[in-house]
Amino acid sequence: MSKYDPLRRYLADRRTDQAPMTFAEVEQVLGFPLPPSARAHAAWWSNNTGTHVGVRAWRETGWKTSRVDIGGERVVFVRAGEPGFQSEDGAGVLRRADLPEAVRRLVDERTRESGCTFLEAVTGLLAEAAIERRRQILDRFPLTGQRSKIDSTDLVRAERDAQ
Fold it and tell me: Which residue segment(s) compose the domain that 53 sits in?
């Protein structure tokens, strides 16, 4: 959990396409002062997630900084698209807008309740669904007969080694 999560949650809950804020308003949302570099260097507000953890607060919720006025201590956040993530291999993108409404509600509920990111919420829900599906499959097979003395891990290894 990042100390910038209050800003992430604030932006995630916005229903507009722009969120103009003063630096003081950002600090009020965060509950602590911005670092001195945020007031001295526009680069602090860059949209490069490798810059610092604060950037992830707005990038992971589908926002980016658009206009930064260091002298006037103002920043405008704009929607960069729906929250989502690109797969590591570049094969696909999952965006909130691509999810069915019922799934969006589940993901939104998870992010609000646990304070996690979009990706963490989706990952957690998928893991829970997979566990439940495995349980349902196992429940179909009666536990009758003699238990095998061979561990399923040994079967997988034997199959792999045979190939």
Answer: 5-79
Q: In terms of pTM, does the model score above 0.70?
A: no
Residue 71, judged by CB atoms within 10 A of its CB (0-12, 13-18, 19+), counts as exposed
Same domain membership, residue 88 and residue 63: no
Contact 58, 6 (CB under 8 A): no
Give the Cα-Cα-Cα angle 24, 2, 8 (nearest 5 degrees): 55
pLDDT by position in tens, the chain (length 163): 679 889 988 988 887 888 999 999 999 999 999 999 999 988 899 888 776 788 888 888 888 898 899 999 999 998 876 555 544 444 445 667 777 888 888 888 888 888 777 777 888 888 888 888 888 887 777 666 666 677 777 777 877 888 7
Report the candidate in 63, 80, 125, 120 with the shortest Cα–Cα distance to residue 100: 125
